## 1
Amino acid sequence: MATSMATSVVVPAAAAVNARSANGAECSGFKVSMAAPLLSSFVGCKLAVPSSSSSPSCSFDGVQRRSAIVSQAVVAAAAGVTAPSKQKIRIKLRSYWVPLIEQACQQILEAAKNTNALTMGPVPLPTKKRVYCVLRAPHVNKDSREHFEIRTHRRLIDLANPNAQTIDALMQLDLPAGVDVEVKLS
Amino acid sequence: MGQKINPLGFRLGITQNHRSYWFAKPKKYSKVFEEDKKIRDCIELYVQKHIKNSSNYGGIARVEIKRKTDLIQVEIYTGFPALLVESRGQGIEQLKLNVQNILSSGDRRLRMTLIEIAKPYGEPNILAEYIALQLESRVAFRRTMKKAIELAKKGNIKGIKIQIAGRLNGAEIARVEWAREGRVPLQTIRARINYCYYAAQTIYGVLGIKVWIFQDEE
């Protein structure tokens, strides 16, 4: 519970930093939707940690014992970002084209492997199909229709023990257009 | 009449690539799609307005739009790039400004490139525009079709079919006429067939022009 309090304190500071990446950071689990210069969330994370170390003591003013626990958790989280430990990056890729998403996966795995982070994946999640059934004719003939579908292919990549190099490499990556990336830090 | 499926849609995924590459979640999909349409319309409008002086047709084969999260890449495939680069040294700055005004949030960068196509008359869009131009200047349609086929044969194509429908030569009763050269296997999915529909506005009404070009197999 102490750690969850720590992350909820970190998020507002990070949101202020990331005002430019429009899709805002939600409070649940620090999920940030990605934009092309990927992983600006990491910038926010690094900057947020030292500034938030002061705020727990402000918000838990009268309760000395609780503030100590929270500041400890924040320090642990800070240590977690800079030093390799329990930090984990979860990257979720979505696209309508299989070759593009495969290429994106390869690029991310390469960047991660070159900088010595443990990689898990790419795990192919089930493809989502949105099916639209429309009438073929412009006027009558209700019985004759045609089906169209949009297939969304999904992949999941986990990176354990990311270090600053990994984050840099990932930020400089230029993924093909048509692939949507979502990064989650935990 | 309604029995033939659009050969472009039929081959999407195999031998036919999409013209827009982006991903959008279901909520934003319609907005992004609308924006795409606006970009294409804007380019078309610009070409029609500015190329009125010269040979009167713009020669744009297709517009490809690729979206990354903060970059929009618009690639205009044209057979006559000189027509679009109007004033000296300015390039397509004016067009780029127009398109940027249309895009809703100025948060994203826009990159526009002109790509030249070798053998422009091998593209059905450019050919159809040429035919429309001739028909609007009241040239006999049969001569137009033959000339268009000749122009297209200069490129390496294996087959071409042109269909013109409407009040041909201003006749009171509309009819459909078509001319074919080589083979155009519409049922073969592995055949690379490019298709375009274009409407020519004449004083007698609208003439629908359909052009199929069979490039190669696989």
## 2
Amino acid sequence: MRMWFVCRFCCPAAQSNSNPEWEAKVLEYFKGQLREKESHSWVPSLNDVPLHYLKPNSLVKFRCLVQDMFDPEFYMGVYETVDPSTKANVLRCGKYKDVTECGVDLNSRNTVTAERQTFYCVPIPGESPWAKEISFLSAARVVPSTSYVPSRQKRSYEEDDDDMDTQPQKQREPHTEPHGNGDSKRQETEAPSSQTTAPSDCSSHLDLNFPLPGERGPACLVKVYEGLDSFKLNDTLEIYGILSVNPVLTVLGEEKDPSLLLLNPTESMETPEEQRAHDPPASLVPRLHMLYARPLQHNNPLLPSAPTEDQSAFVSSFLVEMASVRAELLAYLTHVLLGDGLAAEYLLLHLISNVYTRRDVLPLGKFTLNLSGCPLNSYTERLYQIVQQLVPCSYRLSMSLHTMNSMRLVPKKDYVANRLVSGALQLARNTSLFLDETQLEQGQLDSSGVRNITALGNLISWQKVDYDFSYHQMEFPCNINVLVTSEGRSLLPSDCQVPLQPQVTPPNMEEYLTTIHMAQFTSQINKFRVYLSLARTLDYSISDEVTKAVEDDFVDMRKDDPQSVTAEDLHRMLVVARLLSLSLGQTTLSRDGWMRAKHIDMLRRSRTEQQKSLNGNEP
Amino acid sequence: MSSPTSTPVGSKRSRDDIPVTRKFYRNRLSESYLQSYVDMSSPLMYGTPSSRVEGTPRSGVRGTPVRQRPDLGSARKAPQVDLHTELPSADGAVASEQAAGQKLVIWGTDVNVGTCKEKFQRFLQRFIDPTSNEDENAGLDLNEPLYMQKLEEISVIGEPVLNVNCSHVQSFDADLYRQLISYPQEVIPTFDMAVNELFFERFPDSILEHQIQVRPYNALKTRNMRSLNPEDIDQMITISGMVIRTSQLIPEMQEAFFQCQVCAFSTRVEVDRGRIAEPAVCRNCNTTHSLALIHNRSAFSDKQMIKVQESPDDMPAGQTPHTTIVYAHNDLVDKVQPGDRINITGIYRAVPMRENPRQSTVKSVYKTHIDVIHFRKTDEKRLHGLDEDSDQKLFTEERVQTLKELAAKPDVYERLSSALAPSIYEQEDIKKGILLQLFGGTRKDFSQTGRGNFRAEVNILLCGDPGTSKSQLLQYVFNLVPRGQYTSGKGSSAVGLTAYVMKDPETKQLVLQTGALVLSDNGICCIDEFDKMSDSTRSVLHEVMEQQTLSIAKAGIICQLNARTSVLAAANPVESQWNPKKTTIENIQLPHTLLSRFDLIFLMLDPQDEAYDRRLAHHLVALYYQSEEQIEEEFLDMAVLKDYIAYARTYINPRLNEEASQALIEAYVDMRKIGSGRGMVSAYPRQLESLIRLAEAHAKVRFSDKVETVDVEEAKRLHREALKQSATDPRTGFVDISILTTGMSATARKRKEEVAQALKKMIQSRGKTPAMKYQQLFDDLRGQSEAAITKDMFEEALRALADEDYLTVTGKTVRLL
């Protein structure tokens, strides 16, 4: 809240002095404030608080994925207004605002045109319910004003303001108070009206363009002023900015008379579709003027998000526990995978895999797992629910013939509406994509089905998605953990196939899994969650000595039987060795680690071979 | 146009016949100034369209009607300022005496109309560009003033448009160029005047539809759409991009015609900032609100909205393409279609959002667009000619310098080849082959002697065991070249590769959609899983890979498209593992007609020896754990490689020198000789052509304009290497080219004949036996022959004899004829 006042006062500074330095100062100030411990948690989050409980023009944050980038726009950075009664000219600042004050002198020589860009941002797709809940709870703890009781609302704001008053503030001007109160009053009167245009039922006819079906949450048009080149599509960001829900924005869009549209050539160039996509009502898609954005390495609320000393302390303290947590998690996963320890080991490795770099076209570190031989009847569904409980972002794609033929996986540019229509493969980094091939039945794939399968294949082999721009395709690299569950060997490529060998056959699968799940305490589960997110971020290296050993080993293996080990096998074993070491919290490969990796890969291979000879005709 | 008084009207009609209407091109000058200071002969006078040809053709500046230029923005006006009183004080500009009136600069600029005109006329009369190689100048004498010749062309053809290359203006007069870029709205009309004066002076009798309009293009800095910023507003810019959408024609009112309902007095009102102010009072009879708009007598101009998207090559990775709105006016309407890649020269505009009278606040955003002055399609000639110049990438001098330094290094060839796909281990020769493919040979045109174009592109086939990173190599190449296409043989149909005709849902027009091969014209088409391709699909490749064209006869469209693409294909052996006992053809089961069209065929096998394994292991481990910096030290940056290739492809056209030709001849003769000893042909002219291409490509790698012996040596070596791998007859161990050209090695053919002869002899020796048992004959032959004879061979021999009409085979009996 305090920051919001500052913002209000920074802009008038431009009136006396059009020196752009103040802009840099504003940013610095906000960045400085947000770096302060805990301060970022004072800022209410659009993810957690319904829009109509937030004050317009206040500072909010938003945890989101950049879904689309619109064209840059020019706006009046500085403009002059003429007071109709006094004829006095006043210079005003247009930055961080959507609309101007009244009486703009369009011919003024003092007008400064500046450039900004709009990003269409959506909440991180597939964010697990637990991640949402935890971040909501932690936010609610510090921002009492986000209480959901409308009658208490005003009161709580005042409390909040009072809280702020008690804190030492240098920048605060004495007469900010009326402004603040005025606004909160206005907000009170506005709230009901925005409630009547209820967000939930309204969004049904307005396509908010979420990548995954059934997603909810606010989408946001983020106006970006600085560092445009540093942002990329599909980045996950935590954006701090000024909320703008000026109803004018909506009115401008809706009041347009179709006959006027015909006449005005400058506006007829926008099709109604385009207008809907680019200027949706502000009550549904608020505008956010970005002050500062923090790229998110992960969206696990249990981990400190910023790479600060804080985090390194956290990491080192957790590293000690790492091995024990791993053992517990492994036991848990073994139970879940019906007593198959090897499959559990591989699943664990898969969950911490991460594309850490690319060598020309080759993504390194990806580890797509194909769990074959999964029992039918909702086992996979249950398995997904358990995975979902562990990772912050996930999505289960049931590969039934119908979904494969009808679903849009690859984002496609819609030139009529001039936006990128999202698809299920537009996911944030490190999202777990759970492909359920057990749902696939015999039948005919149509052309879009074939395209979808190809897209999945490309995703797995190259970790990239070719977005469809109709006249050409554009390649977007991604970093998605793909887990394929199937009966036989999957029709999709994978880095590693593990046939599941259940040791137990519970008569009632649902009950069995539910009991396993219930047996875990939340604190235990939380530990697992931290473990998985953390193991992924660890650095890793390999010494020359071990390199030599690995080389020798490879040569030896080839000597006995050149067919048995190929370059591809070495690739995979190196990845397994890396993940195995990381899973134990070791940041270098030891000789032991390599032997272990070799060992479990051997076990796995003998199992697949066994499977092959059982089935006989499998290639 | 949003004013309530304006209404759209269907067509444009002629108005009263006034030879030259008083209309001023400079909107910023006041009417009063114009009337008092400018007489009719002043160059500042600028007519409006008078009636369309009213019987008598006219000529001369005065007689030819002037076409309005909405592209220069009559729709947007600055406040009108009386130049006479305000300027000298406000802008400190000098107003001195001039022949026709005063020497003034245009308000807000430093442009003096007289000087500017003079300069431009001088430019037109004197500019010579002897080194020009633009296609527009084809057929012009390069040592004569270029633009005077163009004016002459105008007088002959009668198309009143003069395209002026801005880089010419810049090299001639930098100051004039600066003015043109900064104040196009003021300078271009001045240019128009200058041209017209000059033209009608020279060709007083020519008749044009309207006065000549100057269309500057190539405003030197050809910008990326992304780099446009607020400073470019109202300046002339050139950007490149791709058309994604065009609107229907929009009639835009230029001048409204009002008539008083009471006294029939008429008046005209010009559009001011997109609005027309309806006169409230009739000037003649003083009746208020009596004026009505007469649509039929108002003037309209054509306008079209075009959306342009930045071309994929200009985009930074990981961002979405930007789009820009472009307005085309008058005859530029409908000049471009969605999908065209164009360079646009125009004026960048920003218009504030319309103020809503009912609201006190406005959105603080401007709408931006470009008013087009000149379109230039970059892929225009792709369908019927070479487009060397359109592809030209601009290199900075430093870049060229670094590239040349790199080229001067003695080991540049090795360096580049190792920079190619560093993640793939060794396979040096394959990488070298692909490198040469990226550079390509020199294009030769023999169409005058009737042989058509010679293929300059090198085609390569990789075959070998699965899992030997063939796909990865293909992916890499596809990412490296600007016009690459990647398809998989499994998924692509003949249609997807060539072109298909579809109906545009909007226009109901039949549109030719091009497939991967045509799209990769001048690039590389990577085809994975070549062996999985259906026969019909493969058959289209025959034409592409030798003639470099694609013929299409579909839905009434018959055409031949250029597909000058190199093909890089990867094929897996039919049995999942490569069988070293079989020939290439037998292993991959591809028709030999297609195989012979590949210049180089490489085998990517998994070599099984210890030293190799060790190096491979080292390479892979390093790949996983080397840091970025280490990698960069070791290898060339991909961007450098890209630029190097692009530079060599555009600027280097090596030709064979004497020694090299001699060396090639020798090499060819040698190749033929090898086989002649064993009674078989071991080389065909196609191999000679391949050698030439490879040698040329190698010269390109060295940035050399001459193909020298070293190039030929390397070409020979590589060619031999590839042949050794792919055309070795597994039965004899000799390299046998006929495996690739006829699908069967010469020894195999010989052997077949021998068996047939032996069989015949055997039958003959038996005397008169009209019918024999099949099985018995086979057993006999096997018993007689010292070499093992398989059933296949026996059957083949039978078939050969049947062809000779010596015997027939019916079921299990063989009858003599």
## 3
Amino acid sequence: MEAVKLGSATVGLKSNTHAVLIALKRASSELSAHQKKIIPIDTHIGIAIAGLTADARILSRYMRTECLNHKYSHDALLPVGRLITNLGNKMQICTQRYDRRPYGVGLLVSGYDDQGPHVYQTCPSANYFDCKAMAVGSRSQSARTYLEKHLDEFLDCDTDELIKHGLRALRDTLPNEVELNTKNVSIGIVGKNTSFKVFDEEGTAQYLRMIEGEEKRGGQPDTTGQDPTPPQPPPGGEGPQDPIPAVAMETE
Amino acid sequence: MATFFGEVVERSSRAFWGDESDSEDDVHSESHKNYRNLEVSSSAIIPSTIKLFLVVHGPLTEGFIEACFVDKGVPIVEIKETGTEDNEQLRRRKIKSSVIYHLASDILLCICSPHLDIAQSFDFTEKISPWMKNAEQVIILTCSHISGYHITRYQNDPPDIFMKALRTNNFIYPVLSDRLEQPNTVKGIPAAVLTWCQTFKIPAVLYICYARNYEVDSDSVKLFVHLFSKLPFKLLKEKPNFTNKLCGGSEISSTLYL
């Protein structure tokens, strides 16, 4: 569980027709590119990872194999719930055997099948949860607070609004001096008549532009904002305090 | 392999120090080589009244000072390592020395070198004791990884970052954090300084910040900023600057976690 908290933040949310994953990408050094966080599994399922990269790779390979096998033998897409159950069972084995260690990765799985859109969260404990919206990873508490606050709005959203909500939730996990940009954000979407796809930089830029003018949690309002949302109260009860200026007065 | 009929042949063991093959002289000479002395720079000025002596230890706290504190100016004292190596070799190893700065209005700030060993805690405390003796109060700031924090009751979703405090008996000023509970301990230089203050009856408090990583940004230092905004000392910059790459933080970025 601690391994998941060491990965960067990821948000997943769904409406009546679509499920969206937004992830914060991390570059391990200045020389390297930001590493991929959202992995397509099948045309109707995609995952976002938080935690040990190597373990995530193994699980994603397993999930892809399961989906392919099912497609071949049944000529139909694997229902998301069934994939999650199989995955959970696989992950449980290594929590019980003495010679294995748990998979140190948390997944947010988004998919669309006959039952509609789904967002599932899996943990290294091999538990999985069907979610309306969820955030995992480092500092994700702020994102979860945002999602809880706006939960009722998600079901009737169109895709643009849904993605904007996800970006706002993700932005809340960042400190004030860091901004979302096309390099460190990844957006994936799946839904009715929409195969799972991860947006390229242009697609991401378009959505980032939509939330550009908005006020951040506890931050200064942007001067170009069209419809500034009312200031959100800082989550956790105590936001960063304005530092007291340390200028020595001349009269002292 | 030759066998000895009836004789007891002791098997060599890697577990014990006291084997005859290990000469005790070697052990002593090695420890002598490894021991690093501390030396105070000769131009040491000791102000007669010190309102606050601040000791800062750890990458997160050092990063906070770099980003949020007023300009420190020139150090008044440097506590360097000397040893059997000469200065050239020390410089090559890029060992940072501990420094003491004189901030405005009788406040001294001591930044501990990240290269100080836990074995040097007592030596270091002795070196800075002449300044602490004259201080009205001592505040020690340190940080630790959250995995080192022991809890007695399971918490469903523990906070990512929190602060605990330990104070000496005669610390009369308000303590701005919860007390550090058992079985948690503080060790190393912060512990040595606090113990010294308790022994010599100097009012002192130690604030330890538990965090998941030592990345310095406005979120990770907000507890320190909150602490200093409540103290009667004007030490914080109006606009903190987090872009300085020298701000603590982990120089080795992890490639394990994504």
## 4
Amino acid sequence: MTIGGPRGRHPRLQMPCLRKMERMIVSMQDPDMGIKMRNQRLLITVIPHAMTGNDIVEWLIQKYGISEEEALHLGNLIVKHGYIYPLRDPRSLVLRADESPYRFQTPYFWTSTKWPATELDYAIYLAKKNIRKQGDLIEHEKDNYNLLHKRINHTWDFVVMQAREQLRAAKQRRKGDRIVIDCQEQAFWLVNRPPPGAPNVLEQGPERRNCHTTRVQLNMDYYKREIEYCRKAMARTRVKSSICLEGYIKFNEQYVPHDPIMSGCLPSNPWITDDTTYWVMNAPTVTTPTKLRVERWGFNFSELIMDPLGRAQLLEFLKKEFSAENLSFWEACEELRYGEQSRIAEIVDSIYQQFLAPGATRWVNIDSKTMERTLEGIKTPHRYVMDDAQMHIYMLMKKDSYPRFLKSDLYKNLLAEAIIPPETKKRVFPFMRKQRHSSPSPALLLPAGDAEERGRSPSTAPVPEEES
Amino acid sequence: MCDQTFLAIVFGPCDKCSKEKPLRPVYIKSEQLSYCSLCVEMMATEGLRENETLASLKSEAESLKGKLEEERAKLHDVELHQVAERVEALGQFVMKTRRTLKGHGNKVLCMDWCKDKRRIVSSSQDGKVIVWDSFTTNKEHAVTMPCTWVMACAYAPSGCAIACGGLDNKCSVYPLTFEKNENMAAKKKSVAMHTNYLSACSFTNSDMQILTASGDGTCALWDVESGQLLQSFHGHGADVLCLDLAPSETGNTFVSGGCDKKAMVWDMRSGQCIQSFETHDSDINSVRYYPSGDAFASGSDDATCRLYDLRADREVAIYSKESIIFGASSVDFSLSGRLLFAGYNDYTINVWDVLKGSRVSILFGHENRVSTLRVSPDGTAFCSGSWDHTLRIWA
């Protein structure tokens, strides 16, 4: 959501948070439920309709049910955005949770109302200050003043005249009002022209929705596509919420013990204790895997096949069943799907020779229809030509070999021999911190030429060998 | 057998006016008919005569969307937090900053983990891209891009290369080399070309393909070696800001989010949009799949995060609080999907209980917007990057 303004050369303020902040401010000023305001004494002057920093923090705590830390943080952001300003020490937009007096900014000066602040206005403001302080401006204000003087020199007479008029009008007001208006203005300019070194809360990223360089045209074709999509979507099959949501509960039950942030990890979380044993024990290719890891292979086929160690065990099992070529075929198809565009024909041919040709050494058993379709498709090889065959073999392994694997002696032995590492307690004396060893970068593991080879085979995690 | 794949000119009675004339095939509502050329002309201009103006198409699209939401609502028989009532509540939650990575001279915009669970790549506003071993906090590589606002960066699955891009409208791949006297920038490969800023990029299952999202409203799949465009994805109505690849075992889809408030799920093979969700009130800054692949979460400028279920085809949870008014810039799940970590523009990180819908914890520490957040590959920690020039590892 962007704030008003015609499409064009002016950058737009992309901050929906400001509207929400304004609503918060309005409810803070609610006569019944808002903050109780009173007169605050500023040296000898009495300022009406003010509140203390403490009042603000308390109100936020009450209204939103949040902690004091969060309320202070939120209050600080409101002040930083110029919606509340301090009366004492007005040059620093900071919320103090004590008796310091604060006031609500007038809507005239709200960030969203007056954005963007014009150079002309800033020039007038600085000119006023300059006149009042007889040239004794702060460093950065002096710089800005000189810059503006150069840039909009042609309007300078107007600037000075306006400045003088505003100062004259101000003299007519009561002291209390003068102080308030000064603080309001100062707060506004602190937000819109922050001093160097101070964070600029109005800074945004690169402009979004720049219609000049977009490829999207909201024309008839776009809406026709949306309409077609909606029609198709209406007809799709959906699953009842109760069934889908049950899925999350089950997933949660299965995986929470494996989630290091939720359940901790044994022997310890390397980030907390500086001990990398956990990573060493769970390295992609380790001799004896941990219990949790082997258990995870039993959750679903994907867990088994995506873990390099699990996949190696699966291969061993399939060899015993004389169906190892299925896994090799699947791996070759993955290489095709995620491989280089230029090697597609070569890979397809290699797959055909090894797995699909009549009399091939590692012939895979695909149903005749799929085989026919695949052989036909090979004539014009493309990245997805093996998809049907690959899916068939994947499902075969998943529905057929995998359940047998889980019941096999091989798997049972893996479970029995798997390690449960003992817990390492966090060191009691933090200054005796364990030395943090570096590990070899995956980019270092092979000589430069082979780095490309390594990049080609998909889903192989790098194998760092840890120093103990 | 006679092969009738060529276009035969048929002479016969027109399906519309019944006159005997040379006929042409015409497709109406997926049915093939044979019209004479005069009737074809009339058909083509019928659209104009029926006043198919832009406005009427737009309103038809809107009303259909409304009907679609009604359809979706029909199978919604229970809320997530109701189902989650029997799940144990989470106890006290303590996460602290365990590492602070200082070295960027300007706002950190993006980061990604290496599969080795400890290295990360990060990019910033001043064009610097740094590879760190975040465990030791050592910088291992650094390269300066020729553009500012490098909003996207990604680590290759092999750990041997990184990809990045931003205001240069391109995505470039840099192989990581440790050779002395080797200038990383020399081996740079320009892969993707868009017509507006690059907002997100990700390698697929190998180093050979990259998926990109851009401010020009499109996503695209590229072959790294040749720079060839393999597939493009059109459908967003404005800038695309984020994307995430599905963890599904048959890995063929991804989700993207954009300034048009839509989150769209795409089929990588055909380029078609499979599903679309439009319930946010503002730009979607971040999307991330739930670990099972059956759902995804989104973070938006409207200060909410939402969970969308793909099988139920609807939004199933909203994570919001009245006191949170700043946009969520980046979201990610813990390994089990029980926790959703979200970085916000109010400098904080909120931790949500995905099942119960409540906020578990709020983490302070950053001194400016949190712009990027990713959980490590083994779920032991997460890393946040901020406009305060630092990255923090939390565990």
